[in-house]
């Protein structure tokens, strides 16, 4: 079992430059190297820190001299700092023209060796972009499934991101490209963690494609709610939310919880929603986002909502006691605290935090949540 924790990938400079920072340090621990070699690596370690600081200061200085808003430079900083060599050598970077404005969207992709194979669409996290390493790609290659990790306007820190019309168009363009290159249009599987789960909710409601299964982990549903939650806790996401919603004027238009349910919703594949019970305490997205979006879909797809919705009483018990509300079994070795499902949507609150549990997440995605 692997815990794919969003925060590990958000440590930006330290994560991306880990080899530069830590290699000299680890080498210093080898007792067998000479004192002269130790001294050389000590100097190398200091120089590596100075070099990284110079790069960061230089980028910010250029932005200041040009009079640019730092949010305009952020996508370039994210690409610089998050890019790493963990991607499998069969994953390639390609560019796809946008049907919305003609701009080229960069993506990471794997083209299966066989034709008409399933397509996995994996959506990057809130502050990431297409180069942010995605462990789902390894499972796609192992099973020879088409795979794409689109950019859809990069980090959610400006008005062209945060589930804008451009974002939905970019995701549809990425799917169309893979179908044109051999992927099956009838076997599309979409998955996202955290900000990726947020974009998944938006894709579920607005994409022109119907996936066989949608899997959202630790997802955000309501930007107005999340703005207040992050403001109170002093999290940097608050500034992102304000930047992409015109200082709060566009909360509703960027929040899937506020969007109308399309008439074709019952024709879409199963939507599975997963949330760790401790998220919101040791993570950034409270479980109420997942619960509220689940209830929204229930209200649109089930005639008798009472037995299927998460009641106010159930929600309060989960938030107050963080204990299982019944015997629901486990996912991997994690106890399930609450599980509700219909043919259209499934909700699982499990023993965990702000995370995606692998390999369960991949296996569950491909078997359609059953």
Describe the structure.
It is a single chain. This protein has 12 helices and 12 strands. It has helices spanning 12-16, 18-28, 35-65, 70-82, 136-142, 165-180, 195-206, 223-233, 237-244, 288-301, 312-321, 360-366; strands at residues 2-5, 92-97, 104-110, 117-123, 146-150, 183-193, 213-217, 270-276, 330-331, 334-341, 345-350, 355-358. The relative contact order is 0.11.
Number of E-state strands: 12
Strand content: 15-25%
Order of helices and strands: EHHHHEEEHEHEHEHHEHHEEEEH
Average pLDDT rating = 85
User: How would you describe the shape?
Assistant: globular
Cα Rg: 22 Å
Give a quick summary of the entry:
By secondary structure, the chain is α/β, with parallel strands linked by helices.
Secondary structure layout plus pairing:
Elements: E1 2-5, H1 12-16, H2 18-28, H3 35-65, H4 70-82, E2 92-97, E3 104-110, E4 117-123, H5 136-142, E5 146-150, H6 165-180, E6 183-193, H7 195-206, E7 213-217, H8 223-233, H9 237-244, E8 270-276, H10 288-301, H11 312-321, E9 330-331, E10 334-341, E11 345-350, E12 355-358, H12 360-366
Parallel strand pairs: 4-5, 4-6, 6-7, 7-8, 8-11
Antiparallel strand pairs: 1-12, 2-3, 3-5, 9-10, 10-11
Helix pairs in contact: 2-3, 8-9
